[in-house]
Amino acid sequence: MELLRVDRVVKRFGGLIAVNDVSLSLEKGERLGLIGPNGAGKTTLFNLISGYYKPDRGKIIFKGKDITGRKPYEISRLGIGRTFQIVKPLPNLTTLENVAVGSLLKHPDVDEAMRRASEILRTVGLYDKRNMKAASLNLPEKKRLELARSLAIEPDLLLLDEVVAGLNPSEVDEFLKLLKEINESGIAILMVEHVMRAVMNISERIIVMDYGVKIAEGTPDEVASNPRVIEAYLGREEL
Ligand SMILES: Nc1ncnc2c1ncn2[C@@H]1O[C@H](COP(=O)(O)OP(=O)(O)OP(=O)(O)O)[C@@H](O)[C@H]1O
Ligand SMILES: [Mg+2]
After folding, report:
1. Cα 212 to middle of ligand 1, angstroms
2. Domain 30-40+70-233 belongs to what topology?
3. Which residues contact 82 (CB under 8 A, 6 or more apart)?
4. Calpha distance 183→21 (Å, rounded)
5. Residue of minimum CA distance from atom 8 in ligand 1
6. Cα separation of 208 and 131, whole Å?
7. In whole numbers, what is the pLDDT of the chain averaged over residues?
8. Spans of all domains in the chain
9. Contact 161, 42 (CB under 8 A)
10. DSSP 34-78
């Protein structure tokens, strides 16, 4: 069953077309990767799907509803959670409070929101850090907190923007294991990632963007051997 459909979406910034006529479809529970060189338009596409930007053209359909141009809080309430490329927890709140802020969207009762937030912290392995200020967490912990916050709205789809960037190889492996567990609980994942090993490992299917345009789509093996994809990455630092 189709969960998300992006239909010929365009986003301009002045003269620059950051996302140029991009379409994609994602099935319920699917793991889809989105890759492309710096500036390809990946984060902009996330901002369009999650309502931070309005597309200049095109449509975004989630669970059969047209969500084009809706506000971020409405879209998260409908079931799209996201992480930010630059992690931004509320530094003076505790780890638990950071997650509970999201849980309150679904559970206005504070005790219930706290209970839900605690469960999510157990899932992501941060329960022991629940009373620490978010600012005092190290990078892998902050990444887990960012994930926990996106889970707090009880999403059917997670948009993950470079969640393993900056982690060492064993931290990446642990994070991927966690993402697979989350996916097995029925949550679809759309993942933007420069760490190729991670995105190749997690994705059932991959979409490649370059200069705002979708240039390839297929299995990890298919896109890795696609001449257009290799060309787009040639001489650039990511590969
Ligand atoms: N708010 C904005 N105003 C003007 N230009 C923007 C804005 N956001 C993004 N851009 C431009 O749009 C293009 C796409 O940027 P975007 O951040 O979506 O790329 P990306 O694929 O996420 O890159 P990276 O891999 O470096 O994160 C870039 O040229 C960028 O400079
Ligand atoms: Mg980006």
Report:
1. 9
2. Rossmann fold (3.40.50)
3. 46, 50, 76, 150, 158, 159, 160, 161
4. 29
5. 44
6. 40
7. 95
8. 30-40+70-233
9. yes
10. EE-STTSSHHHHHHHHTTSS--SEEEEEETTEE-TT--HHHHHHH
